[in-house]
Structure formats: C-alpha cells, structure tokens
Write a structure and sequence with these properties.
alpha+beta, four-stranded antiparallel beta sheet, three-stranded antiparallel beta sheet, 2 helices, 9 strands, about 30% helix, about 35% strand
C-alpha cells in the first residue's frame, strides 16, 4: 500500500513539474517571447519553442530546474540527482532525480521541447 501511494505521489510530482513548465511557457507567450527571465531569484532562459531551461556553465542546472518548475506547490524532494551528458549533443542531456522507492524522474530537452518522465527504474 505504501509503495502504491509513493507511485501516485511520483506521478503527481511529474504532473506538477510539467504544469510549472507550461505556466512559464504561457508567460513567455504573453510577454512577447523574451529570451531570459527570472522567477524566485532563479535566472533562466527559454528554448526557441518557449520552454524554460536553466544552464550553468553550458550544462543543465538540475537543482535549479527542479526549483523553477516546482510551481510553488509543496513537493517531495529528490534524494539525489545526476546529470547525464550525452556525447556532443546538448539536445539529449538529462537531469535524473532519485525520488526513492527505487524510482527516478528525468527532465530533458529534445528539439527544444521539455520532456518530464517518471517511474524510471534505476
């Protein structure tokens, strides 16, 4: 029963993070598509399609992406994160968050679109 509740919580977290991205994208549309913005002292930029992304030294800034997309709603924290850099292409670099219960959540960008995937097993 506890594991099922954790899985539901994981799905709700994924949905909350995605809704945070959607809200920022809508703001991008309404504000004449700026290249950069700042929310809660987190500076970030937008992809060419308007999805929010936070970089640090050319790599995704995983902790700040999580905070930015958390949408201001109480959320379960991740236990740890890892940054997976794939070759020479930044299009598939991923932030992988360990949520516990042997599951992970990933945030990555493909063709300037954000993807948030949950229920990944290690």
């Amino acid at each position: 029963m506890h594991k099922n509740a954790k899985l539901v919580q994981l799905d709700l977290t994924r949905n909350n993070l995605y809704q945070g991205a959607v809200n920022l994208r809508q703001s991008w549309e309404l504000n004449n598509k700026p290249q950069h913005d700042e929310v809660d002292k987190i500076p970030f930029s937008y992809t060419s399609l308007g999805w929010p992304v936070v970089y640090k030294n050319g790599d995704l800034d995983c902790p700040k992406i999580w905070s930015l997309l958390s949408n201001g709603i109480e959320k379960p924290e991740y236990n740890a994160f890892s940054y997976i850099k794939s070759g020479d292409s930044v299009a598939y670099n991923s932030c992988l968050y360990d949520i516990g219960i042997n599951k992970k959540l990933a945030i990555f960008y493909i063709n300037d679109r954000i993807h948030i995937v949950s229920n990944l097993s290690p």
